[in-house]
Amino acid sequence: MSRTNREIFGRANFDIPKRRSSASISTFTKGTFSNFLKDIRSFHGAIAEKLKPNLELISAQCDSISSALDLYLKGGTAVAYQVLKKCLDELNEIQVLPIQQVPKEGNESLYRVRTSINNQLRKEDLFHIPFELREKVSTQRYSIPGLPCLYLADSIFVCWEEMGRPDISQMYVSRFDLSSSHFKFLFFTVNTDTIRRRCFTSDARGKFVNQFVSFLTYWPILSACSTIVEKPSDTFKPEYIIPQLVLQWVVSERKLDGVQYRSNRIKVDSHSTGSFNNIVVPVLDANDTGFCSQLKNKVKLTNPISWQLLDISNSLQNIARKDDYEIKDLRRAMFVELIGGEKTIYVDSKFGLMEEKLKGMKATHIA
Question: Of 136, 166, 249, 329, whose CA is between 20 and 30 Å from 96?
Fold first, then answer.
């Protein structure tokens, strides 16, 4: 008896993020794609019919990503980029890449964290690294060495996890508002479980089939950008090769302003429920000193606050616990695992209280 489409898509081969073991990144990626291509050819019915015209493109995409990895590891970084650029251009041309413009409303709660032991940080200290300090730009999942970027997250908890759980007493946090930026992002935020819930319900027909086929069509590049780092303490992280090339495409083509992507540091389960997303926005111009003039005009942020200063000033007493919260806030972080095996209600945590305080503060442009 043949398997249903739901059963086929239930296979672990489709899960994201991926975690490689001892295999090289090249071998691991080729094996992942081989299993993926085999499984998508076993779909049937309306999904198979809709997917059929894209199978050649999907297979070529897998080959391009694998070739880009091999070329990069052999020192051919420029050629590797050209191979991946052609792949991304083709996906963009048929409009399957998940690209969206930041809405004028509803996406105002984004956060950035920096730490300081002795000095109280200013508003400017929470913006991107100044051009005169570009040598401090370290390698990250989406980064280009020496290129300042603005890194934001949809909750303070994500910032904290991405920074390796620093001492909360040393943290300064600003809320960022991009609602008037008109930014367009590549949204690499949908995971396989979300698609399973959305597209395989009893009434999932029509547009849901189209959405599912689009997801499968760009799944290889999403998967290659979502591999969990095997050795976080190493200087070179091969899992970052493809996402860094994707960011180079964003910077070079200027069709998009950045990438929104899910954090790989947080395992979503019964103890951690939320979107847990990051955003990277590369600078749009370059100067010898200071900040990107275009980002200064497009991005608003609040003055930074710290838990320590809030506690000292008694500001915490003015933060009332609400009985009901906006759905968008609960989607960002409902439950988090701050202590192993323990589920914490996010709005009741220190992070939730800090976010509530920041939402009452006005966000403005930096001078």
Answer: 329
